[in-house]
Design brief:
The structure is a single chain. This protein has three domains: 205 residues, no CATH class; 96 residues, PDZ domain (Pdz3 Domain); 351 residues, 2-enoyl-CoA Hydratase, Chain A, domain 1 (Alpha-Beta Complex). Strand 9 and strand 10 form a beta hairpin. It is built from 22 helices and 23 strands. The longest helix has 25 residues. Helix content is 41%, strand content 17%. It is α+β, with helices and mostly antiparallel strands and 696 residues long. It starts with a helix and ends with a helix. Strands 1, 3, 15, 16, 17, 20 and 21 form a seven-stranded antiparallel sheet that branches. Strands 5, 6, 7, 8, 9 and 10 form a six-stranded antiparallel sheet that branches.
Length: 696
């Protein structure tokens, strides 16, 4: 089938996603890099053509890839490679920017050779800088001099020449040394560690493969239309599917890179490694062998994605890991049988708290206590592949939460807290269905397509799984699907929204288009990755968008995240807020204004008397002061003084957390969450009093 015919037969997607930008995207280049790249592959032309055709036909903005978008895309690509302006010279940037009006034409012509030209230059500059870095690490630094490293590079140009580049790296290495000296690292070990860090980075850059470069280049170009339209390489698509279905085949360990080593950051409870019993967090994996007899391959300095691919494998097969246990220098070899790993930490979990009235003793006679059920929901997950196959009991958020609510009802729970503070989105279908557990039929969200046609997505199931008081806990990290649910709950007057002043502010819907399936229409097509395409905007039942504004909390609690530049409005090229007519729905009377006012008054009074909130407010003030700083002092005395103040606060906070640590896997029971429970207790009681008054 020709690409032209394949493009003409592209079908509409069956699954819609509403995903927020994750924090991992911030460091995109460090995880998306390097190999011997000679020239684009034939498949790259197919993928590029499909991506550009789909965007031209289906993107919500209907904006063409004009010269303005072309320039933005090129700047984004260069920034993704060198965000701190430490590798490229200004002459490199000037040379590349000559092509700023041509990027769109290159993509229309299915030609990505320019990406290879840029990336080869980047590798050249990385190698040059690492030579300079190795020399600088061995120099003697004067830590009594008052000099600074610039941290705000927005208005900074790239180095004019090698001498200026060397000076920037001198300041950077001096900063690295100050940080490591604070960790009581011996001087020789400190220098060796920095050598390894930057040499390892260079080696990983040279391991970048064609899939990764294509992903970087296409994503830079198309995310200049909006920040959520991206291209996923085949491996990125595989990882995305794992996150949506919440299971994988492997050993059950979370890994991260640290100075060239693959370090275990967490052993997943119940997984193969956990059952094996020897692999622990902080261990370093230095080799991987397949089965019982294959040679163990050295993985030091290997990029993390390649390490993961070696460790994952079919359930029931063996993998041998050469490991340096934490605190040891002697390697050991572990043989672990792979298994199906359920990602329990990412699914809905619950706990019931028995809470006395705020400020009272739970054991005192006559104390009024309520049962408060808490549901922690990290994402709106759905096993799309199982759903596509028509399996009736596929993994989904709604099914899991429904079971939890049934359990709450049987246990006589008085109020429910739905914790969405770290929920960045997921399946649109699940957002609608989950909202339906709390309302009795009606519109949940309105969706507008590129033709400005509005479709109302409704909950059509009669009845509610939970009819009692509901508190939705949100933060700046609550995005997309979380905002659909929180916005609908608020518009209906169904429950309270508590947390940061507003949610993330992402009001767009993405479709996941599998490039191979869309092009060739054959069973099990070649994996060519996928396009995550912004095709629609969503609106609350009342007609307001959440775009850039989010869902405003009824009760705001102090939080550092509320002051971070992490919302949709802080992203480049985010679409603008707008409004459409409200849908017809019946409001519920579960959030009377006088109740909200009373709850706010009570909460503010408790916060004013709470030492922990006072400490948090001091930390917020310090954070805002540091946020305004554009440089870091490299005088050791000044550096240590500033760091000591922060470290003292961290240690004090850690001691408080240790005191409150009850090994609860659902939610951390700290002063912040105690206030949430107090608000919920007051809310339950005030609603009960109101109903009694109305009954009279």
């Amino acid at each position: 089938m020709s690409v032209r015919n394949a493009i003409s037969r592209l079908r509409r997607p069956r699954f819609l996603l509403i995903l927020a930008v994750s924090t991992s995207m911030v460091a995109g280049v460090w995880s998306l890099v390097p190999a011997d790249l000679v020239a684009p592959r034939p498949n790259d032309r197919f993928v590029t053509n499909a991506v550009i055709s789909l965007i031209r036909d289906r993107h919500i903005s209907k904006q063409s890839l004009d010269q303005a978008v072309s320039e933005r895309g090129l700047k984004s690509f260069l920034r993704s490679l060198d965000p701190m302006k430490m590798y490229f010279l200004q002459s490199d940037i000037d040379e590349f920017m000559v092509q700023k009006d041509e990027l769109s034409k290159m993509l229309e012509d299915k030609d990505i050779s320019f990406a290879y030209t840029v990336f080869r230059r980047f590798l050249q500059r990385v190698d040059e800088r690492v030579k300079q870095i190795d020399e600088l690490i061995e120099e003697d630094f004067d830590f009594t001099v008052d000099e600074y490293m610039v941290t705000d590079t927005d208005k900074l140009r790239h180095p004019a020449d090698l001498a200026e580049a060397r000076e920037r790296w001198r300041l950077r290495i001096k900063y690295d040394m100050l940080v490591l000296k604070g960790d009581d690292t011996e001087e020789r070990e400190l220098r060796d560690r920095l050598h390894r860090r930057y040499q390892s980075f260079a080696r990983r850059m040279h391991q970048t493969d064609a899939d990764e470069l294509l992903e970087m280049f296409l994503t830079a170009a198309i995310s200049s239309l909006d920040p959520h339209t991206t291209y996923m390489s085949p491996s990125t698509l595989d990882n995305f599917r794992i996150q949506m279905r919440l299971n994988l085949e492997g050993i059950g360990a979370a890994l991260q890179m640290e100075d060239g080593y693959t370090k275990v950051s967490k052993v997943i409870p119940g997984g193969a490694a956990d059952r094996h019993g020897k692999l622990q967090a902080e261990d370093r994996i230095i080799g991987v062998g397949q089965g019982l007899d294959d040679e163990i391959v050295d993985i030091v300095d290997m990029k993390l994605n390649d390490v993961v691919q070696k460790i994952r494998g079919q359930a029931g097969t063996e993998v041998r890991l050469k490991v340096i246990p934490a605190g040891s220098k002697e390697p050991q070899t572990y043989t672990i049988t792979r298994a199906l790993v359920e990602l329990k930490d990412s699914e809905a979990r619950s706990k019931v708290f028995v809470e006395p009235a705020p400020g009272t003793d739970a054991d005192a006679p006559g104390t009024e206590s309520f049962k408060i059920g808490v549901i922690s929901l990290p994402s709106f997950y759905m096993d799309m592949e199982a759903a596509r196959r028509g399996e009736p009991s596929f993994k989904s958020t709604t099914q899991d939460v429904r079971k939890i609510l049934e359990d709450f009802s049987q246990r006589g729970v008085d109020g429910v807290v739905l914790d969405l503070r770290r929920n960045g989105g997921g399946s649109l279908t699940e957002a609608i269905n989950l909202t339906g557990l709390f309302i009795d039929r009606g519109p949940v969200v309105q969706v507008k397509n590129p033709a400005s046609e509005v479709e109302i997505y409704r909950d059509n199931d009669p009845g509610m799984a939970w009819t009692g008081p509901l508190v939705v806990l949100t933060s700046k990290f609550s995005a997309s699907a979380s905002e659909i649910l929180a916005g609908a709950i608020q518009d209906y007057g169904r429950g309270l929204v508590v947390g940061d002043s507003s949610t993330h502010g992402k009001g767009t819907v993405q479709s996941l288009l599998d490039i191979g399936s869309e092009l060739f229409k054959i069973p099990n097509p070649i994996n060519l990755g996928a396009l995550k395409l912004t095709q629609q905007q969503f609106y609350r039942p009342g007609g307001a968008s959440t775009q850039k504004r989010g869902v405003l909390a009824d009760i705001v609690l102090p939080s550092i995240t509320d002051h971070m530049d992490i919302s949709e409005a802080d992203l480049d090229y985010a679409l603008e807020f707008d409004r459409i007519p409200a849908a017809k729905f019946t409001r519920m009377n579960m959030v009377p204004q006088e109740v909200v006012q009373s709850l706010n008054t009570r909460s503010q009074a408790r916060i004013a008397e709470c030492d922990e909130f006072a400490r948090l407010n001091r930390n917020i003030k310090r954070y805002l002061e540091q946020k305004e700083r554009k440089r870091v002092p490299l005088n050791e005395e000044t550096f240590r003084s500033e760091r000591a103040e922060v470290d003292a606060e961290k240690e004090e906070q850690k001691q408080l957390e240790d005191q409150n640590d009850n090994d609860d896997e659902v939610v951390k029971r700290d002063f912040y969450f105690n206030e949430v429970l107090s608000i919920t207790h007051d809310y339950v009681r005030l609603l009960q009093q109101q109903r009694l008054a109305q009954a009279r």
